[in-house]
Amino acid sequence: AAMAHVRDAAGAQRVEIEALLSMGLPNSPMQGANLRIVSGNFVTGRPIGVLDGIDHQLTGRVRGIDRDGILAQLDAGSIVLLSPLGYSPTGEVFNLALEDVAVQAAVAIGAQKLVLFGSADGVRDREGRLIRQCAVDEIAALAPAEPEQARLLDTAGRACRQGVPRCHVISYEADAALLEELFTHDGCGTLVTRRPYEQSRQAKIDDVGGIIELIEPLEAEGILLKRSRELLEAEIDRFRLLERDGRIIACAALYPFPAEHCGELACIVSHPDYRGARRGQRLLEELEAEARTQGLSRVFVLTTQTAHWFIEQGFVEGSRDELPSARRELYNLQRNSKVFFKDLQAP
């Protein structure tokens, strides 16, 4: 009897979704869309069986996904609609967990992202703060208070562990939430990824354009000394980057002077949209660690407008006479930059 209600609910929901996606009234956003919706026996189910002495009968799990069938429909321009029903070679129909269907379908077709909808604007931590992004390894420490959010976060984690690069958790109540999540850099919900969404790495020659885009506004303001593309290409190995979703949002460079056991930290820049989250400090600490591995015992910076920030990071003002001789010869008297030094402690 229960399965009959499940079939009725799934069928009614499918018809309603198909009807909404078939709309095409003049002067409406759907005018001329002519969307084709396809549903069918793309999901094979199997019974859960007897657990702890209880026979779950027609409650099942996903046994398989018709990957080729789904991809053929997608290639034909159709929207594939999957219900929480799984069909068996024996002719039985099983009631499946919708989250299980979503995860297995995404994995089977090699989806680049899985979007999960909930009533809230994403996943919130114990203090009620929206979690903008997290890696799979960080999920266990989050433990959202709301059961729905915990379930969505668990589903996102399972999908990522099985090969889906990223999952988005957004609200079905917020207007344009899906568009904002997919087509803006920071989205509007919670992003779960297999690997950290924001990564630090060594710069490559292909990054020169992104670095120029990042530093040009500060060069125009006179905060940074202007660097040509040719100079950046020649010195690209000196740079370390923070990358967020393929976009360079911070950079810094280390120029060693091995003879004096000293190194210059330069071009420490964060994108205006991503300041205030210790990204500059992170790159600074990573380059200080790199300086130690190179046998340097001291680093220095030259700055005209950010002296207080470097003081907060443990730097002490010094004299340009203390600079390595090669760097002292290049000192720009017209800029009159202040010089700050920091002794590196052994790790």
Which word captures the global form?
elongated
Identify the CATH homologous superfamily of the largest domain.
Gcn5-related N-acetyltransferase (GNAT)
Q: Main sheet: which strands, in order across?
A: 13-14-15-16-17-19-18
Tell me the name of the CATH class of the largest domain.
Alpha Beta
Strand proportion, as a percent range, falls in: 25-35%
Low-confidence stretches: none
Structural class: alpha+beta
Fraction in helix:
25-40%
Provide the domain count: 3
Corresponding CATH architecture of the largest domain = 3-Layer(aba) Sandwich
Query: What about the largest sheet?
Result: 7 strands, mixed
On the 0 to 100 scale, the average pLDDT is 90
- What is the terminal-to-terminal distance? 68 Å
Radius of gyration: 28 Å
Per DSSP, the total helix count is 10
- CATH topology-level name of the largest domain: Aminopeptidase
Q: Strand-and-helix sequence, N→C?
A: HEEEEEHEEEHEEHEHEEHHEEEHEHEHE
Count of beta strands: 19
Outline the structure in words:
Strand 16, helix 8 (279-293) and strand 17 form a beta-alpha-beta unit. The chain folds into 3 domains: 1-98, no CATH class; 112-196, Acetylglutamate kinase-like (Carbamate kinase, 3-Layer(aba) Sandwich), CATH 3.40.1160.10; 199-343, Gcn5-related N-acetyltransferase (GNAT) (Aminopeptidase), CATH 3.40.630.30. Helix 3 (98-109) packs parallel to helix 4 (147-161). The strands form 6 sheets. It has a 7-stranded mixed sheet with strand order 13-14-15-16-17-19-18. Helix content is 31%, strand content 26%. It has 10 helices and 19 strands. It has helices at 2-21, 67-75, 98-109, 147-161, 177-183, 208-220, 229-235, 279-293, 307-312, 325-329, and strands at 37-38, 43-47, 50-51, 54-55, 60-65, 79-80, 85-87, 93-95, 113-118, 133-135, 166-171, 190-193, 198-202, 239-244, 247-257, 262-270, 298-303, 316-318, 338-343.
